[in-house]
Amino acid sequence: MNFPSWTLLGQSLLSGIFIGSLYGLLGLGLSLSWGMLRQINLAHFALAFLGAYLTFQLTSVGGMDPLLTLGLIAPAFFAFGVLMQWLFSRFSISPFNSLLVTFGLTVIIESLIQWIWTADYRKMDSVYGEMKFKIGSLYVPLPELLTLIIAVTLSLSTWALLRYTDLGKAMRAAAEDPQIAAAFGVNEKRLALLLSGLAATFAGVAGLCLALSYTLSPSQIYAWIGVVFAAVMIGGLGNPIGPLIAGIVIGVAEAMTMALISPAWAPLVSFSLLILVLLTRADKV
Amino acid sequence: MLELDHIEVCHGLATALWDVSLKMAAGELVCVVGPNGAGKTTLIEAIAGLNRITAGTLSMDGASLNKLARNRFCDQGIAIVPEGRRLLTTMSVQENLELGSYRAAARVHRQASLERVLALFPVLKMRLAAPAGTLSGGQQQMVAIGRALMAQPRLLLLDEPSLGLAPSIVLEMFKAIRDINESGVAVLLVEQNVAMALEIAARAYVLEEGRIIAEGTPEKLLTEPHIRRAYLGEA
Amino acid sequence: MKLSAPAWIALVGLGLATVPFFGLPAFYESFLYLIFSAIVLATSWNILSGYSGYFSFGHGAFFGAGMYTTATLTSKFEIPFLWTLPAAGIIAALLGVGVGAVVFRLRRLRGELFALLTLAVTFVLATIVLNTPIDGGQGVPLTAVTLPAILSSPSSTLYVLGLAMALLTLWIAYSIYLAKLGTGLFAIHDDEDVAEVMGVPTYRYKLIAFGLSCALAGVAGGIHAMFISYVTVGETFSIIVPLNVVLMSVLGGTRHWLGPAVGATVITALLYGFTAGDYPVAGRAAVGLILIVVILFMPEGLLGRFIPRLEGRRRKTTAATPVAAAPAPDAVQASSETLLRINGLSKAFSGVQALDGADVEVRRGEILGLVGPNGSGKSTLINMISGHFRLDSGSIVFDGVDIAGLPAHRVAQAGIARTYQIPRPFAHLSVLQNVTLPAMFGRAALGRGAAESEARYWLEFTGLAEKADALPGELNLHQRKFLELARALASRPRLLLLDEVLSGLTPAEIDHAIATIRTIRDLGATIVFVEHVMHAVMELSDRIVVLNYGKVIAEGKPEEVMRRPEVVTVYLGKPHA
Predict the structure, then answer these.
(1) What is the distance between the alpha carbons of residues C238 and A177, in angstroms, rounded to a whole number?
(2) Would the N or C end of chain B have less CB density within 10 A of its end CB?
């Protein structure tokens, strides 16, 4: 094995951080709905891809700036999240059944995407696509940097929301003991709707980031599930910052594995970590 | 102030309360005693809005609360210290207390209420930032009472505040309850520590198997054969 | 004439076996083969996941292990195809048992966490296969491997193999469904802790079910490798396999041996139909929609929805079997001989000392009342004796044998039965099945037939005979409490632990229950009896033990003990005349 150059290592580290931030961003909504609403929302990934395709459409065909598409996508996704939570509470769905129902939803969204945009690979052309700049000998592509900034901003603001505002504290209280929260005046059903809307909006934002940096195809939906679940479990359910940190750790570990050993071994890192976390901390997650 | 008129509550499959009538005036300290499984907790939770009433009327100041959403009960000035405390164990002591003052009318007085609670339970001052789950049983009970006081209640519902606490802590807890009552808050106390409860209560109800079987002043009840039979199995 | 299920399986199998001789286009055989393969996968998955409720998302890993075993052995070691199939099954089973041996020890790793863990195992396995010579990233072609000429064409041969596997899997699933193993697995599904306390060796049962499930999937994988003739990691270890398997089983109904097969047939035919008809995308969407609709409106699946009605109709006729002779639970006269001796028992839960050096002695044939205020450690004591918790220190000697630290099912088999304060019946088993289970797994260790008549006896005894075919959900609290009692009695215990059987009952029901317990005592059982309803304690107990803060503070004759000042203090909060 040849030891790679420092530049290559640095570049790997950077790309690990970048992809890790996308893991974290995808994991943020997943972690909120799992930890605080007790729903394992597999459809989160399909929603993110739907968001990505919508961004692609609005940008490539509608000629919008990719970042501005959020103005349309975010409210629509928020409404979708609210609707979903309403249905879930209407049918009082158990955590396990939420997994199956959202798998059904995933398949439907995947089919929808395939029907509208076909199974071909799509890559969005945008003003940001080719922008990159150089720090020392390292290249920093702008789309990836944007993803990192968005992921950090969203995770930190969600954390602050939950930590410092009355609304956020009420959400945490309702997640832990809805009855007691209600006894002290918290409208826990409305907060659940809000939270679910928020999680779906985050999926839309993650979709924007996917569209900025990645080539899209419907089957790619499934490629992200395993590793993002690992980030969420390692980061802690309901924790808004954990998935980002765990995501970056996994991303960097994968990138290093790719650079030092072989790209194909990379998945081993995240899933071994996940198994380890499950075996040792199962009572805490 | 509070009136329960022939209420019935179903809890799961079993009817937990059959026919309970109870009245409380503002500022009164009333206790409900009775053996385990008599329905005391169901009663307290029904008054706090956590259990739905299936028959009869629950009213505050003459207005029925039967149809009220459960998160609106606290706006009536009702606050609960539930059985087993039910603190939010992952949240800090301060956050637990602040949850008490979530409702708009109490939120504006949050700082004053907090100071009042800390004056009542000074040990909590040092633990404000600690996760509530790491406190000792007695301190957790103080947080639970403090949380309810933060809601600025007119009526405080206490469900077995002495449960699982060492005797010396129990004494302290009862002293605090009396102080709270003397500050003008009506208290409805459910206890299996009969003697302690009867000592501080002005009136008491005896609940057995989902029904009120006796009512009156503590002096009167302590002479009742019912009480001795229910607790000591005397014939 | 009525045929049994195995006869039906054989008959349908024979019929299908003639298909290759009709000279249909290979297309039909391939289509049917896909259905068979799906039946094997879904049914084998169901043996662990449907019966015991441990939803695995790792079935793709075991299927894949089988595929790669056959692919490697045939293409690289030139072992004849048929010989590789047992190997494929064994490798997959070993893998499953290896995972299970670790995972099933962890009490918390149930539900969605188990699903996630098995999914992670799939991806780890995929990565290893991809990066080692097993695959090497190129995939393994099997085009050069010769298929044994069982029938004239390759497609016919695979068809017959697939059919044989499907029949075998269905037969195994059916046998387990009826066997003791199946009963135990269904109990684990509803309440694993209670199953263990009633004598089901839960760990071993889960492991056996997982091993069998994986072995069948492995063999199916071996055949499938030959069918697709080109094995790649991406196709094999994808999340689609487990998700489809789960979907098929849930659609058909996971609580019936035939459910997954029905689901597999419907889904495969549907997908195939849409693919053939130019609307593959619409087909996928339809499958997704079906899944949602089924979960929302028919969470028990197609068979779960319709079979119980049929069986209910049939059962009515058999319900009136005569009651067997009265089997008394270990009848002996009350004596001074010690049956259970507890010395210095301590147990703390996250800092709270629930039991603090408690000493209790239970004599053969007596009723011992265990009283004390809430939180004094009574229920913990019951939980410790029945083996639910490990003790911190002390000893529990039952009939001369130290049972401290034994798994709960061994304690049950030794002859200790308990009831739960809040009844914990197996929600999906009928009242009769609920009582039959402890008769099979507890000390009585009866065969199914004998266990059932034993159960009917105790149902009659507790006044529940009318409800034998009902589900526990249809019972009121009073009846559920009596169901608890019947379950405990049916195991023919030598020691009966009753945890607040009277709480929550109306006065009339309490009187009825007291009469029942008195009858049990007259049968000669030894009973430890936790109770708050004091007049019942006074009426029933030979001796009482008073606990406070995890310590025994008094012991003796009821009337005498309840007058002692220290006991009055505990109950009324301070000394009181």
Answers:
(1) 38
(2) C
3-state secondary structure of A138: strand
**Could you tell me which chain C residue has the CA closest to the CA of A40?**
C112
Among candidates B12, B36, B209 on the partner chain, residue whose Cβ is nearest the Cβ of C506: B209
Please indicate if any CB of chain A lies within 8 Å of the CB of C160.
Answer: no
8 A C-beta contact, residue B100 and residue B148: yes
Enumerate the residues of chain B whose CB falls inside 8 A of the CB of residue C352: 137, 164
The verdict on residue A144 lying in a domain is yes
CA distance to C67, C69, C150, C215, per residue, from C86 (Å): 12, 10, 17, 9
State the average pLDDT for chain C: 86
Tell me what the mean pLDDT of segment C428-448 comes to.
92
Please count the structural domains in chain B. 1
Contacts of B231 in chain C (CB under 8 A): 534, 571-572
Domain presence at residue C507: yes
Q: Name the pLDDT band for C334 (thresholds 50, 70, 90).
A: low
Helix (H) or strand (E) holding B58: strand B55-60
Domain of residue C434 covers 338-572
Would an 8 Å CB–CB cutoff place A272 in contact with chain C? yes
What are the residue ranges in chain B where pLDDT is below 50?
235
pLDDT digits (tens, 9 = 90+) for C41-94: 999 999 999 999 998 989 999 999 999 999 999 988 989 999 999 999 999 999
State how far residue B190 is from chain A, nearest Cα, in angstroms: 18
CATH of the domain at B93: 3.40.50.300
Could you tell me if C281 lies within 8 Å of chain A, comparing CB atoms?
A: yes
Q: Give the total number of structural domains in chain C.
A: 2
A237: pLDDT confidence band, cut at 50, 70 and 90? confident
C226 and C87 housed in the same domain: yes
C-alpha–C-alpha distance, residues A217 and C100, integer Å: 36
Domain of B162, in residue numbers: 26-38+74-232
Answer yes or no: do C365 and C232 share one domain.
no
Mutation pick from C52, C110, C112 vs chain A, by most beta carbons of A within 10 Å, is: C112
- Cβ of C503 within 8 Å of Cβ of B160? The answer is no
Neighbours of chain C (3+ CB pairs under 8 A): A, B
H or E, element range at A116: helix A95-117
Count of pairs with CB atoms under 8 A, one residue in A, one in C? 117
Taking residue C9's Cβ as centre, other Cβ atoms within 10 Å add up to 19
| Inside any domain, residue B213 | yes
Residue B97: inside a domain: yes
Q: What is the model's pLDDT at position C95? A: 96
B194 part of a folded domain: yes
Q: Is A185 on the interface with B (CB under 8 A)?
A: yes
Contact criterion met (CB < 8 Å) for B71 and A186 = yes
Q: Extract the tokens encoding C480.
A: 């559920």
CB contact under 8 A, C475 and B36: no
Q: Which residue of chain C is at minimal alpha-carbon distance from B133?
A: C350
Strand order in the sheet with B211-216: B63-64, B55-60, B2-11, B14-24, B211-216, B203-208, B29-33, B186-191, B155-159, B78-81
pLDDT at C575: 44
Asked if B13 and C475 come within 8 Å (Cβ–Cβ), the reply is yes
Range of the domain at A85: 6-281
The nearest alpha carbon in chain B to A187 belongs to: B71
pLDDT digits (tens, 9 = 90+) for C283-315: 778 888 888 888 888 877 777 777 655 555 444
Instruction: Please provide the DSSP assignment of C186-210 as one string.
Output: HHHHHHHHHHHHTT--HHHHHHHHH
pLDDT reading at C135 higher than 80: yes
